[in-house]
Amino acid sequence: MKKIAILGSTGSIGTQTLEIVREQKDIQVTAIAAGSNIELLEQQIREFLPSLAAVWEEEKANELRIKTADLNVKIVSGMEGLLEIATEPESEILVTAIVGMLGIRPTIAAITAGKTIALANKETLVTAGHLIMPLAKKHHVQILPVDSEHSAIFQSLQGEQENRIHKIILTASGGPFLGKNREELKNIQVEDALKHPNWSMGKKITIDSSTLVNKGLEVMEAKWLFDVKPEQIQVTVHPQSVIHSAVEFEDGAVIAQLGTPDMRLPIQYALYYPNRRSLSGKRLDLFELSSLTFKKPDTETFCGLSLAFTAMERGGNIPTVFNAANEKAVAMFLDRKISYLAITDIIEACMNQIDIIKHPTLEQVLDTEQAVYEFIESRW
Ligand code: NDP
Ligand code: MG
Description:
Blueprint: E1 2-7, H1 12-24, E2 27-33, H2 38-48, E3 52-55, H3 58-67, E4 74-77, H4 78-86, E5 93-96, H5 104-112, E6 116-119, H6 122-138, E7 143-145, H7 148-156, E8 165-172, H8 182-185, H9 190-193, H10 203-211, H11 213-226, E9 233-237, E10 243-249, E11 254-258, H12 264-272, H13 303-314, H14 318-334, H15 342-353, H16 362-379
Parallel strand pairs: 1-2, 1-5, 2-3, 3-4, 5-6, 6-7, 8-9
Antiparallel strand pairs: 8-10, 10-11
The structure holds NADPH dihydro-nicotinamide-adenine-dinucleotide phosphate and magnesium ion.
């Protein structure tokens, strides 16, 4: 039996991880954490019988304790609770499927405790990659990508340890607003932005995909995971989402991973790495595809992508500024407090405002997040 813990078990990645557990039957879930959805969390506790579960607020934790009083499960809360989930002694793998910088401290704790990380929570790597990657190396811990593009790159790199990456081709669907200009994006409403053409995901990443900020975060995620320079990463718009990403090697050979858009494949690959397992669901049928198309991203309209490259090139705490500003702005957009285009305006304003720190400590990363939040609250 493989033993895993999941941060964010009630979300899009979390529930798909549990689908795999249900299907494969040889994974034991030892610990799970959610934000506030205690109804679903209770169902998951009853089905998967973890010994530890966490919710964010102590009040909700108390409610859950009463609901699960007949079971042998300890319920914890807050950041302390997430740290306990991350380091639960029995688990071998931590699936990080929570959203945002909240994942940094639990990820660090899990690495320090020697857990393999199945990483979906890209915001952690974007903001603290400079701390996470050396720490993982020190503790001989593997960070296995769950993000579909990064899993595709990782799969393309198998058996290539001796060979240098020339270039990473990071594919992007282009999102629901592909082909539109800024004028046409002015009046975009929350409902419009929540409709992704190919993937069904949590709200925050769905908005990020529509602005191409998600691709910007993924560029930074790739830099840390595969140790490449910004100029080695080429974003290619590929609306069919069949080629999940590719690697070009020094001899010009391009190796890619293809498939239907189904997050369960990269999740399962990370859980059983380096082995593959059968997976139910639709298979890629090349005869069903009329064409595969590729074009350069429109970074004038979708300036979030160019801002991400700027943030990556400036380095230090600037990727944290980019990410924290986006997290806050997306939450405000979802609350209908700002317009769609204000999301990237806010990111840019924050990147111009906050002082650069070249080699930020964990405290300085978290302080930068706070400074960004305060600046946004004072201005918008
Ligand atoms: P969702 O919004 O669907 O799920 C988020 C999960 O985190 C939920 O279980 C939520 O609990 C939990 N959560 C929220 N706040 C807290 C908190 N304070 N403490 C503990 N748990 C909390 O997100 P996704 O699954 O879409 O995304 C998760 C991560 O994976 C993100 O970083 C995203 O960028 C990345 N990712 C997602 C992909 C996808 O297809 N969805 C693809 C590639 C990457 P609750 O339900 O109670 O709110
Ligand atoms: Mg992705």
